[in-house]
Amino acid sequence: MNGIIGMTELALDTELSPEQREYLGLVKSSANSLLGILNDILDFSKIEAGRLEIDSFEFSLFKMLQETIKSLAYRADQKKLPLLSYVDADVPDRLMGDAGRIRQILVNLIGNAIKFTEQGEVAIKVTKQHASEEGIVSLQFSVRDTGIGIPQDKFNLIFESFSQADTSTTRKYGGTGLGLTISNQLVDLMGGRIWLESELGKGSTFFFSLDLAIASQEPHSTIQSADIAPNRKRQNHQGKLNLLLAEDNVVNQKLAVRLLEKYGHQVTLANNGLEAVNLWQSNHFDAVLMDVDMPVMNGYEATQAIRINERTTGKHTPVVAMTAHAMKGSREECLRSGMDGYISKPINTEALWQELEIIQGGIESESTDAPSHELRRIADLKK
Fold first, then answer.
1. In terms of DSSP bridges, do strands 136-145 and 83-87 run parallel, antiparallel, or are they unpaired?
2. What is the pLDDT of residues 138-180, one digit of tens each?
């Protein structure tokens, strides 16, 4: 999937005839749909096996909502649907909970609302129901659309696995029917509940409520938005870097090299971990992009070998994992092995640029008192 999506994006960024651009656009759309299905199936399998865990850490509700809505704005913009958001002024911003899973629920609900709405609008709202003296706030999230609606006798069915309210909607709109099932189970795992109100032909509103610990008592100001502009491609990039890429898959090699060279970076290729260590020892690189699963020596072993060698030089080369390992704990395992950053495949180009910008920032700040790798870790903690 990394190769299909990445190479298609590169091809779309070249000179193409309208017919070629249309065909490649359909390839990319189909690949993204397949990736979504694969992710849903993986999540569903983990939930069914009882292996999906809910984390609890401090996060900004406002920032999470902004990022979620921004990621879906392009889809709404394509259908000329206003994507509205409103958060009550008394809703606290800093909370304790699993922001990633809350975002996943919202993405499922908002994505469905956009998919099943041809005209009108989609609106997201967050309200505070009550707060306890122990610092627990009960929040209600709602996603309202003006779409096709759902008959009342199908309300329970749509939360079942691989089910939709009407089989004809599967043919017209696509999808596996897993999104709402996963959302329902995630809400349940977090101790909340999910429900809906709908009228056929007039739209639907999905609600879910969660009890979350307040990390800060200070509420944010009221947030209301009439329209969210779609994402725009990055036009500029940071300074040019000399990079070592450790990757054994030929398609992934070509994708990463062309993507990086397109922005002027110099890339040296290593086909396995041992080759990466040898190249690192004989050359100067600003950073290493390290796959994890490689023959001869894997990415963990290669990183540890680099770190051992650095003890005699006193220098630190940033190592960023670029791997298909995307399960819970994968990022932490990479950091424990001595890596500085983590990007999961299929490669999110925006995440890659952010990692490279942090590396460039470390290089530019070498004249400061803090070592560049410490600045890199500080920046990573702030993300």
1. unpaired
2. 999 999 999 988 888 777 777 665 445 454 444 444 445 677 8
Q: Are 249 and 294 in contact (CB under 8 A)?
A: no
Report angle CA 151, 189, 65 to the nearest 5 degrees. 75
At 172, the amino acid letter reads K
Which two structure tokens, joined as six digits, stand for 91? 């809703």
**Nearest C-alpha neighbor of 302 from the set 286, 284, 319:** 319
Which burial class, exposed, middle or buried, applies to 319 when counting CB atoms under 10 A from its CB (0-12, 13-18, 19+)? buried
- Residue whose C-alpha is closest to residue 120's, from 219, 246, 204, 46: 204
Longest CA pairwise span in the chain (Å): 71
Give CA–CA dist 352/357, Å, rounded: 9
Of 221, 361, 341, 337, nearest in space to 289 by CA = 341
What is the distance between the terminal CA atoms of the chain, rounded to a whole angstrom?
Answer: 26
List the structure tokens of 179.
């999104």
Which pTM does this prediction carry? 0.56
Mean pLDDT of the chain: 81
Contact 13, 358 (CB under 8 A): no
User: How far is residue 64 from each of residues 16, 61, 68, 79, 319, measured CA to CA in Å?
Assistant: 37, 5, 6, 24, 27
What are the strands, taking DSSP E only, across the chain? 57-60, 83-87, 94-97, 122-131, 136-145, 193-199, 203-214, 223-225, 242-246, 266-270, 287-290, 319-323, 341-344
C-alpha neighbours within 13 Å on the C-beta side of residue 33: 13
